[in-house]
Write a structure and sequence with these properties.
Largest sheet: none
Strand content: under 5%
Distance between the termini: 95 Å
Shape: elongated
Order of helices and strands: HH
Number of domains: 2
Structural class: mainly alpha
Number of helices: 2
Helix content: over 70%
Length: 85
């Protein structure tokens, strides 16, 4: 009885290692795909990537400026009504 239980545990361990091997294979495949896409962008379309990055940065800067202006306007509105002395 004890021997069979030990064998069962060994089988589970084997199945676990096979699953982790599959996960590792998937991870490596995914990494290769990502690297291939990145390499394609870097070597084939640097102008498109550059313009996209600039667009992202410009929109981020614009939204930050807009938030600053909104906050400044809110501050000014709060300080506008001067309480009578």
């Amino acid at each position: 009885m004890q021997r069979r239980r030990h064998h069962h545990r060994h089988h589970d361990g084997h199945r676990q290692s096979r699953k982790s091997n599959l996960r590792l294979y998937l991870l490596v495949t995914l990494a290769c795909g990502v690297l291939a896409v990145l390499a394609h962008f870097v070597f084939e379309a640097p102008a498109a990537v550059r313009s996209y990055a600039e667009q992202r940065i410009n929109s981020a800067v614009r939204s930050a400026v807009r938030q600053e202006v909104k906050a400044a306007a809110a501050d000014q509105q709060q300080s506008l009504p001067v309480p009578p002395r």
